[in-house]
Amino acid sequence: MKTTVKNTLLATVGAAAAFGGATAVASADSVTVKSGDTLYSIAQANGVSVDELASINNVTNPNLIFVGQNLELTKGASETAAPQVSAKPVAATTEQVATTSVASASHAVTDASNTYPAGQCTWFVKNAAPWAGNYWGNATNWAASAAAAGFSVSGTPQVGSIAVFGAGVGGADSVYGHVAMVDAVNPEGTITISEGNYAGMAYHTRTISAAGLQFIN
């Protein structure tokens, strides 16, 4: 999506805090949200999908979790333990906001800040993948920018990859393109992605064909 700041305000951001530590990993069947966690980073760290994690814990807004909240990782555990909240959520507006997340195992995080316009698909992906560059341009330019920065770019998706939609591809903007996170790679040639600023929604997930897309791995 385009990198011009829109007037859209996000009431909340999908992270427990604007800055924080590493994502909490479950010791058994649950995990306690720590500062800097996002629902995406917790799901990725524990081998579950964002949709599944949200469903198990009755999270109606995947962009809103709380420091100290207890998230169950299996349906059986969620029936015996209720989420606990010990702190208020962090609000964000169109001001620049940085969050930390779990990066791909092969990438080091060199700059966890986020210079993209809040609410855009590029801002969403930079939050989910802080190893991505801050000045990769509009979404349609991300594959070329990533390749120039030394990242692997191909037509083969991996969990944790950044999916790059060319202009007009797969419902992307006809000029600015689109980017999203790959949450699952399915055997029939489809992928499940999470994305921001799709159809006017701050958070959205869908399963689509991987054909015609590029992936930053």
UniProtKB/TrEMBL annotation:
KW Iron (keyword) present:
no
One of the entry's Gene Ontology molecular-function terms is: hydrolase activity
The LysM domain sits at: 29-73
Q: Which CDD domains match?
A: LysM (cd00118)
User: Which segment of the chain is annotated as a signal peptide?
Assistant: 1-28
Q: Which residues form the Peptidase C51 domain?
A: 96-217
Q: SMART domains of this UniProt entry?
A: LysM (SM00257)
Which biological process annotations from GO are given for this protein? cell wall organization
> Which superkingdom, per the lineage?
Bacteria
InterPro entries from the UniProt entry: CHAP_dom, LysM, LysM_dom_sf, Papain-like_cys_pep_sf, PcsB-like
Q: Give the UniProt keywords, A-Z.
A: Cell wall biogenesis/degradation, Hydrolase, Signal
Query: Which SUPFAM superfamilies would you find in this protein's record?
Result: Cysteine proteinases, LysM domain
Name recorded for this polypeptide:
N-acetylmuramoyl-L-alanine amidase domain-containing protein SAOUHSC_02979
List the top taxonomic levels of the source: Bacteria, Bacillati, Bacillota, Bacilli, Lactobacillales
